């Protein structure tokens, strides 16, 4: 059972706070090269190259050191959608409790449930970063959104993050009523790397006979052979929101073996898509991943899946994140609002 309002679980107990994953670099005293590593640790810090790369990525992503004038920022989710209540869930799993934020619109239930997976290249991000997206979806579609905080790579490579999402999906199926939800009406949604995880859930959930009515995928990566797509070759070298350098690093952090690139749980576009739930894709023509998304839509269509693909002209990766800046943001959320009612009818 999910523990509403996080009773009994300290922040350090949650799986996304664990730092003991298989991807953590460890140096042992009985290693013949230990003297070399000890000297190296005096010359550079962190000593491991992956840690050296991750530290600035995570600090810059959080905006550490920036002097931000609040007057220059758009209004926050709580200001825009005060009617949406936000509570914390501690969802049990084999790895420990998983911290989720539950965004619930007003009114009596049971309401449909959406599992939302945030982005961040598998290496950064948290549910609070996407509060505007999840609050708006909850408010405009009368749906309870459960936003999961999964374990990051490289400390926790594939399939740890997907395992966490699956644990939350199982909880929604079994105990979603605890949050006021209707477990017979579950959809999945995610952005960017979270879109990848969300896209994999119907394939993995199929093995456990978990019913997912629909998938809403915002600028996802669905095939880790992304260099094969013309839009990536054209746009990624000098991309702003994402680029070739970051995508290569994110892939290496998440997938540690070449064979995993073709695993359908990592590259859902390469899986058996027969019986996949109806899908809405949101993309932008300035996103290096737009051709990945187009190809996924074509594969789904070939498998007999009902697909809607909204493409924002000249829009970059993640263009839907901020309110009041781009008209295409409103158009994308309107596409979601048109898509969900029919999808939730099953």
UniProtKB/TrEMBL annotation:
Keyword Hydrolase included in the entry's annotation: yes
Keywords for this protein: Hydrolase
One GO MF term attached to the UniProt entry: hydrolase activity
SUPFAM superfamilies: alpha/beta-Hydrolases
Stored Pfam families: Abhydrolase_3
Start and end residues of each Alpha/beta hydrolase fold-3 domain: 114-320
InterPro entries noted in UniProt: AB_hydrolase_3, AB_hydrolase_fold, GDXG_lipolytic_enzyme
Protein name as catalogued: Alpha/beta hydrolase
């Amino acid at each position: 059972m999910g523990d509403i309002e996080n009773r009994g679980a300290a922040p350090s107990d949650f799986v996304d706070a664990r730092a003991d994953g298989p991807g953590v670099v460890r140096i042992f005293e009985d290693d013949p090269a230990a003297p070399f590593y000890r000297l190296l640790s005096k010359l550079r810090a962190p000593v491991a190259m992956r840690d050296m790369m991750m530290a600035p990525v995570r600090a810059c992503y959080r905006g550490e050191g920036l002097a931000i004038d609040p007057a220059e920022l758009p209004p926050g989710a709580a200001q825009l959608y005060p009617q949406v209540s936000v509570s914390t869930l501690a969802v049990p799993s084999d790895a420990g409790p998983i911290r989720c934020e539950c965004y619930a619109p007003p009114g009596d239930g049971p309401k449909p449930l959406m599992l939302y997976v945030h982005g961040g290249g598998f290496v950064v991000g948290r549910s609070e970063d996407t509060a505007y997206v999840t609050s708006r979806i909850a408010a405009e579609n009368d749906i309870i959104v459960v936003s999961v905080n999964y374990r990051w790579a490289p400390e926790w490579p594939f399939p740890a993050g997907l395992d966490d999402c699956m644990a939350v999906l199982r909880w929604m199926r079994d105990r979603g009523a605890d949050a006021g939800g209707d477990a017979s009406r579950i959809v999945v949604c995610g952005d960017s790397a979270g879109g990848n995880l969300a896209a994999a859930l119907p394939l993995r959930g199929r093995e456990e006979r978990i019913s997912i009515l629909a998938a809403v995928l915002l600028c996802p990566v669905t095939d880790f052979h992304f260099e094969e797509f013309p839009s990536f070759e054209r746009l990624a070298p000098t991309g702003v929101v994402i680029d070739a350098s970051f995508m290569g690093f994110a892939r290496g952090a998440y997938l540690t073996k070449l064979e995993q690139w073709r695993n359908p749980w990592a590259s859902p576009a390469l899986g058996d898509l027969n019986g996949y739930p109806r899908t809405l894709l949101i993309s932008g023509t300035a996103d290096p991943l737009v051709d990945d998304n187009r190809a996924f839509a074509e594969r789904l269509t070939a498998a007999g899946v009902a697909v809607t693909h909204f493409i924002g002209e000249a829009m970059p990766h993640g263009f839907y994140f901020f309110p009041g800046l781009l008209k295409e943001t409103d158009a994308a959320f309107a596409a979601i609002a048109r898509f969900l009612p029919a999808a939730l009818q099953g």
